[in-house]
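Issue 218. Parser rejects a valid record. Input:
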Amino acid sequence: MPNTTFKGFAYGAIAAASYGLNPLFTLPLYDAGMNPDSVLFYRYAIAVVMLFLLMKAQRLPFALKKAEILPLVFMGVMFSFSSLTLFMSYNYMDAGIASTILFAYPLLVAVIMAVFFKEKVSFVTLFSIALAFVGIMLLYKGEGGQTLSLAGVFLVFLSSLTYAIYIVGVNRSSLRDMPTVKLTFYAVLFGMSVYLVRLKFGLALQPVPSAELWLNPVGMALFPTLISLIFMTRSIHYIGSTPAAILGALEPLTALAIGVTVFGEALTPRIVAGIVLILTAVMLVIMGKPLMKTIRIHLFHK
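Output the parser choked on:
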């Protein structure tokens, strides 16, 4: 495996695991009475400061070309809406389950690439999509006949879709050759505007309730935002949108593990089955071409 490919997979794994830490930092702030918009504003604002200092340290120019401004605004808004809808879904369902349903985004990436960029959709991809939907339905219908909130599922789907658009946009727009830190800085900066508007330009912003809880927005800015976005962008540049997205398998596993071990969320056989189906579907997408090639070779030799 070429060194760049190895780096791409390694960066994608780091990005996914970092993004899966969202519940660890978010839920304590919710328990303290904060709303998603205020939590995300602090997350993005602190991340902007971190990225600004990183750009200064790397002596990267802040100047933008006219052709780069609109794509950066669009990418920032897409990532911001992905964050907002995911964080809103935490009010309707367990964070681990929400993060698992969110993991449909690699399949959405594959669909977007097929529809808009004419990538061929294989039988394996179609089968994987069907498998993922079965898995999501298992998560949707809980033990004892109880179902997940339809509003929560819808919010997670929107989060998955907007994140998929962000991933494809990074790889297929004029931003592809922009330095990773610079791209991330402007995406987060423009994304923060969503919360400024929703918080009435700061008038509705809630304060962080205690000094100890400030560790949470700092942690969110560092891990699920700065580290996750930088390493995901580098992964996309090395191995492309679809493989980088599929490495997000570590994301729901991380979030689910935190939900169960730290916050006492339920882990039933039905949920485990749904998770296994979703992860299997996504891994089939990344293994699709090599797997089909192996099957053809095996049949040919038979």
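Fixed in the parser; the record now loads. Residues 3-102+145-266 form one domain.
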